[in-house]
Structures are given as structure tokens and as C-alpha cells.
Amino acid sequence: MARSDRASRKARPAGPAVAAAFDTLRFGRENTLDLRSSLPTGADAAHRAELFLRQRQMDSATEVLVITGRGNQSTDGVPVVRPAVAAVLARLRRQGVVTGWQEHTPGSFAVTPAPITALLEAPRRRRDAAEPVIADPAALAALDPATRQILRTLAIRSLQALGAPVGESFVHDEMQRQFSILGAFVPDGPNRETQLRAAAESALNELDDVK
What we know:
This protein has nine helices and four strands; from the N terminus they run H-H-E-H-E-H-E-E-H-H-H-H-H. By secondary structure, the chain is α+β, with helices and mostly antiparallel strands. Helix 3 runs parallel beside helix 4 (about 80-95) and helix 7 (about 145-160) packs parallel to helix 9. The longest helix is centred in the C-terminal third of the chain and has 18 residues, at about 145-160.
């Protein structure tokens, strides 16, 4: 083979399959949401992206990939999925679900999920936001004792980090606040309490890591 032929072959850009393989290596299949293949509406894409990003935050993912496509198959070539996902990303950053994102390709976003502690702190930071709905005390009492214990420990550590009083009434209110926030973000399913407990444990570990 002539040297010019070898140089030409080396200079060829990687094809889509090769790029996808490297994306799988970097992000992993469980951290990749492909919205391009199913051609969803903007509303459906936004809903799926939000559920995916909330779940990946609860699972303590460090980086995820959301594939939106460029919108070439949209009506009149006007992108629908990409701007819908971009709007969701902006809202979830305000809510403490993601810390940021960047364009990975013209048809995808690389997103950084926020620590779970950011989710708990977001309502405090946003003065213009209404306080989260406080969980029913009876619902909190219905949780497994192990779940209540980890929520109690997390409440105490959170109050200490804020320099707030840690009397029993403050701890109980903080437990309810955390339950209402984390519970709203844990996906429905038979293992919901297990996931709630895991999220609380992850938040506690995050607080311990910043000592």
C-alpha cells in the first residue's frame, strides 16, 4: 500500500459507530439516554429527560449523556427535542438536580448531576421559591425504623452544617423537610423506600466528605 493511501486512511474521521463506542466507554449504557431513536414529542422528551436525570442523581452518577439529535427530522427542520431538553436542564439546575451541562456533539448534551445535598439545599438558596410541601408526619412515622434513623442522622448533620439549633423539634421538622424533598424525587416503584434510604445515605456521605 502506498504511503499516501495509508495517510489518507489515517486521516478519515471516525464514523458514527466508532463515536458511539467511545461514548459508551466514557458514559456507560446506564448513564446514557437516547431520545433521538424514538422521535418523541418535545413534552415527552422533557418528561423522560427529567425522570432520567433525577434517577441518575439518586444513583450518584458523576456524568451522563442525553442524546437529543439535531432535529433534522422535525417538521420544517425546526428542532423540538433539543430545546425542550435544554429548558429542562436549566430548570433542574435551579432545583439542585444538575450542576451543569455542555454540548457533547451538535445532537447531545454531557450533563453533570448535582450531589444529593444540593437538592436539599436548593429551596434554602432560592428566596423566590416556595418552601417544599412538608410531608405528613403520619407518613414519616410509617417508614421503616432504619429509614427514619438515617433521615434523623442526616437532619442532625444538616442542621449542624448550617449552625442551626439541633433540638428535637428542629430535628423532626428537618426530617420531614428532607423526606418531602427526597420522596418527591424518588421514582415510583416497589423499591421506593429502599431508594429513599439510599439517597439519604448518599447525602449523609456527601456531608461527611466535606468535613
